[in-house]
Amino acid sequence: MVAIVGQSGAGKSTLLHILGALDAPTAGTVYCSSTNVAQLSPREAAVFRNREIGYVWQFHYLLPEFTAQENVAMPLLARGMRKQVAMALAANWLVQVDLEDRGSHRPGELSGGEQQRVALARALVNNPRLLLADEPTGDLDRITAGRVFDLIERLHKSHGLTSVLVTHNLELAGRCSRALHLESGRLTPLSKAS
Predict the structure, then answer these.
(1) For residue 78, is it within any domain?
(2) 21 touches 53 (CB < 8 A)
């Protein structure tokens, strides 16, 4: 579990977009396992993202007209999975994020922390190898942010994920295996004084 911190505009989100094959680098190569994501065609990149990567953003991006369970099932349905199977897997993930009793609720009926937990379940429903999280607790109060981070940490361990989190929260960054500072296009170990 790696945290990346840095000033606004340092390129933290851009780095996540490149790691996750959402953007292409202007130079160099980017490997995820043995896949050079910088050389994937747009179609190959879409398949790669859907199978290998889970994303959690600062804003949850849940579809307001669908229930929590339907939102979690979306990546599976996009893969062509039968709805009944996708919904069952989504229900299982809602249990894992402690929202089994909220599956029939729409995003507007959920608290900010609950919305972010639904977004986390949606990110992990495909069993990705890599979790990319861009300020996943940035819109949450301190206590709720700590609970969501606890959940990310638990799921990271229980599912054997590689996780890269961008955060401004130095306390949460300090809980990661490694914390790196991005400045002037370079990643360096985060000093304890930061």
Answers:
(1) yes
(2) yes
SS3 label, residue 160: coil
- The CATH number of the domain where 107 resides is what? 3.40.50.300
Q: How does pLDDT run along the chain (194 residues), one tens digit per residue?
A: 999 998 888 888 889 998 888 888 888 888 887 888 888 889 998 888 888 899 988 778 899 999 999 999 999 998 899 999 999 999 999 999 999 999 999 999 999 889 989 999 999 999 998 999 998 888 778 888 888 888 889 889 999 999 999 988 888 888 899 999 998 888 889 875 44
Nearest alpha-carbon partner for 133 in 98, 169, 103: 169
| 40 in a structural domain | yes
- The domain tally of the chain equals 1
Contacts of 127 (CB under 8 A, 6+ apart): 159
Residue 169 burial (CB count, 10 A)? 20
Angle of the 112-124 helix axis to the 83-96 helix axis, nearest 10: 130
User: Does any domain span residue 194?
Assistant: no
Q: What is the largest CA-CA distance in the chain?
A: 51
Chain-centre distance for alpha carbon 177: 17
Would 155 be classed as within a structural domain?
yes
First-to-last CA distance in the chain? 19
Q: Which domain holds residue 136?
A: 2-189
Contact in structure between 86 and 73 (CB atoms under 8 Å): yes
